[in-house]
Design brief:
This protein is α+β, with helices and mostly antiparallel strands. Helix content is 47%, strand content 12%. It contains seven helices and five strands. Helix 3 packs antiparallel against helix 5. The structure holds iron/sulfur cluster. Iron/sulfur cluster (SF4) binds next to loops.
């Protein structure tokens, strides 16, 4: 099976995911991924920069580039910085999300996710264990 690829900020999105998304196809495929990681958290993925296996089903991905008005690159960079993650490394989903849950706090959450539309539409904050 092909190794799963994830961009950094999607490690937070996956934890807060509630079955909402950018298109029916996007929701179908992201739901599969989120369910698989929930049921088998030791599943590994490779951390990458740029379009990943979630972006591939998104209507905002055009020519391998995200054209969403709120560009994802700053969020990716902040996740890498705050949680000391390494592009190109292979992580288990559990290991990577444990690191995030141990280090995240309300200020870090707002710095990464404060401008995201899904922040107000979902319970990401509580899913990440932030009071
Ligand atoms: S909005 Fe951009 S970063 Fe988010 S899933 Fe779509 S293509 Fe990827």
């Amino acid at each position: 099976m092909k190794q799963i690829e994830l961009r950094a900020h999607h490690l937070l999105c996956l934890q807060g995911y509630e079955g909402k998304g950018y298109s029916p196809e996007f929701v179908t495929e992201m739901s599969k991924l989120a369910t698989m990681f929930a049921q088998a958290p030791d599943t590994t993925f490779t951390l990458i920069n740029g379009a990943d296996d979630i972006c591939r089903n998104c209507p905002h991905l055009v020519d391998e580039k995200c054209i969403h008005p709120n560009p994802p690159e700053p969020q990716d960079a902040k996740v890498i910085k705050y949680f000391d993650l390494v592009i190109g490394e292979q992580y288990s989903y559990k290991a990577a999300t444990d690191i995030i849950k141990q280090k995240i706090n309300a200020d870090i959450f707002m710095d990464i996710c404060g401008t995201c539309d899904w922040n107000s539409a979902t319970q990401c904050r509580s899913a990440l264990g932030i009071k």
